[in-house]
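Input record (one chain):
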Amino acid sequence: MPPKGQPADEVCDRREEDLRAWMAEYGPDKAFDDDPETRWATDAGTHAAWLAVDLGAPRAISRLVIIEGEWDRVRRYQVQVSTGEGLSLIHISEPTR
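The corresponding structure, as predicted from the sequence alone:
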């Protein structure tokens, strides 16, 4: 329900504008842009999120690096790979707290 006196379509337009601004600053493309000044992020109220990466062809992966800077929100993560027949879980981290 929109705030009193504000048309519903104006609220929707504002939310779309907020989402576009959020995606421009914190979208998934920022996770792999090699720029330490940018980052992929969810909003502060999110307790679970995922990020998919298409490497284009089979690749060997020897490490995964998560750099959170000052936010310290990741407690646990999983790494899954596509086998062509679905996803296979290859790693689950231990809880960090």
